[in-house]
Amino acid sequence: MGAVHALFVPVGGIYTIGPEQARKVMGSIRPRMTVPMHYKLLGMSATFDGLSDVEDSIRGGDSIRRLDGPSFTIDKRDLQERALTVVPKLDS
Questions:
Q1: What residues have CB less than 8 Å from 7, skipping those under 6 apart?
Q2: Do the Cβ atoms of 68 and 23 come closer than 8 Å?
Q3: Which residue ranges form the domains of the chain, and what is each CATH number?
Q4: How many angstroms separate the CA atoms of 63 and 59, rounded?
Q5: 3-state SS of the chain?
Q6: pLDDT by residue (tens digit) across 7-48?
Q7: Which of 7, 60, 74, 81 has most Cβ atoms within 10 angstroms of its Cβ?
Q8: pTM for this one?
């Protein structure tokens, strides 16, 4: 089986898997880059209060790149030996 270079994984829970399950998926697949998605943002309606925020899916020691905007390009240089979590800046 080939290596997974980039994994987009839901981390918010309720409607999808939550932070702990996402960490298990990341641990079993071992992607070089992970992009968390489907999580709580400031300003969301009360309907989504039960969602976890992105911080719940990040653990100490992770290599994190927080972006200044919502889009990015994956370059070969981004696929490091050490796993990287990319967190785009999103508006709610």
A1: 25, 26, 29, 31, 33, 34, 35
A2: no
A3: 6-87 (3.60.15.10)
A4: 9
A5: CCCCCEEEEECCCCCCCCHHHHHHHHHHHCCCEEEEECCECCCCCHHHCCCCEHHHHCCCCCEEEECCCCCCCCCHHHCCCCCEEEECCCCC
A6: 999 999 988 999 999 999 998 998 989 999 999 988 888 888
A7: 7
A8: 0.86
